[in-house]
């Protein structure tokens, strides 16, 4: 009798352990996917704001065609980009171009006082923060996931269920690029 | 110190387990208290009080639990943060929600000039955050972000659920003790001393418990509340990856005038709204919190 109930208890505990580890892996993978889709959403929002930004500055920046073109091109690249890495790269380029528009706007007091422009500026800088946070969340997610696949006992379950180690996105950090200063 | 790379889910798990543990302890004190009192009085009418009282208090817990967000908003007289002037407030919270993987809470403002904020709600899906006008005006963007990260940490760590439940249980113990002490007072005036011989010892234990139990559980509750504040500070740093903003905000709060709020919602605030002595305080001293943050 004791052996019977004992083996039932062991089986129940084993089944529960298998379930718990499976669920943890699923939760962690979902955190990673969720972070990626957050990055995607924010990049899309950024590119949606670009036409508004361009029309707000159009009247002022007649002589800054190069910058305007840079923004438009980056937006096109972003919209046609396939795969997260390319999207993020195009998004970074777009952000850089937008920043140079804001830098030029410093020279136009009327534009700087325009509420529409100010709102766009605030919104775009908020998006920049959100992209940074989404990437932080993504990196945290990958890290916890990979720690789980490497540590005992997570390692065993990762092998059983086929949850392989995941790679970090090769995203070039925009801030790392040294800005060109031209006179 | 590098931000502690503790997994978010482990922290929540620990918090949940310790909440259950604490609530079990408080429930045990509650049972012991009622049992001793019932025994001491002789059980004639105390059980009647319990039969009426327990469903009432359970109903009260359930109601308070499901409406904690609405109650806090009502008692703080907060208004929803709608309108373009609150755009930055919304943006910061949205960013922090992405950083923490939480759903966006409902945002409110309190028309007060002091710098303060609170969070409430039974779980992250039903959470609210409220800040004062003073915080929106006097804090820089980074400082405001620090404050909001702290409040969001309370939501992420399930602190509101935990503190609301303990507050309700501690309140119940206080009420039962009060009923007992009052009934003693009245019955001693009435002068019914039929069974005093065998009950004197129990009576004394009952009285001692009735006086001590509320104080002990209240102190336990306060100690835990202060610990949770430190935990929320460090989680805020985990979300923002820098303590600078929160340090700045806490430094500004040091010169704050206290806000008048009801004692029941005090543990939910960023900094303690009233001037209480440390042991009887819901929050650790600001100087100590700042010092801890500076070491991160």
Characterize the biggest β-sheet of chain A: none
Unreliable stretches of chain A, pLDDT < 50, 5 or more residues?
174-179
Helix-strand sequence of chain B: HHHEHEEEHHHHHH
How many distinct folded domains of chain B? 1
* Secondary structure: number of strands of chain B: 4
Number of DSSP helical runs of chain B: 10
Number of helices of chain A: 6
Largest interface: chains, residues each: A-B, 20 and 18 residues
Portion in strands of chain A: under 5%
Secondary-structure content class of chain B = mainly alpha
Give the class-level CATH name of chain A: Mainly Alpha
Average per-residue pLDDT of chain A, rounded, comes to: 85
Oligomer: heterodimer
What portion of the residues of chain B fall into strands of 2 or more residues? Answer: 5-15%
Overall tally of structural domains of chain A: 1
Describe what you observe in this structure.
The complex is a heterodimer of chains A (183) and B (296). Helices cover 78% and strands 0% of the residues of chain A. Chain A has 183 residues and is mostly helical. Chain A has one domain (2-169): Up-down Bundle (de novo design (two linked rop proteins)), CATH 1.20.1440.20. Chain B has one domain. Chain B has helices spanning 8-41, 46-66, 68-75, 87-100, 133-138, 141-156, 159-190, 196-240, 244-254, 286-294, and strands spanning 79-80, 106-110, 117-120, 128-132. Chain B is mostly helical. Classes of the chains: A mainly alpha (183), B mainly alpha (296). The A-B interface holds A 24, 27, 31, 34-35, 38, 42, 119, 122-123, 126, 129-130, 133-134, 136-137, 140, 143-144 and B 5, 7-9, 84, 87-88, 91-92, 94-96, 98-101, 239, 241.
Key words describing this protein structure:
heterodimer, A: 183 residues, mainly alpha, de novo design (two linked rop proteins), 78% helix, B: 296 residues, 4-stranded mixed sheet, 4 strands, disordered N terminus
Secondary structure elements and their pairing?
The complex is a heterodimer of chains A (183) and B (296).
Chain A: H1 2-57, H2 65-80, H3 84-105, H4 109-113, H5 115-150, H6 154-161
Chain B: H1 8-41, H2 46-66, H3 68-75, E1 79-80, H4 87-100, E2 106-110, E3 117-120, E4 128-132, H5 133-138, H6 141-156, H7 159-190, H8 196-240, H9 244-254, H10 286-294
Helix pairs in contact in B: 1-7, 1-8, 2-7, 4-6, 6-8, 6-9, 7-8, 9-10
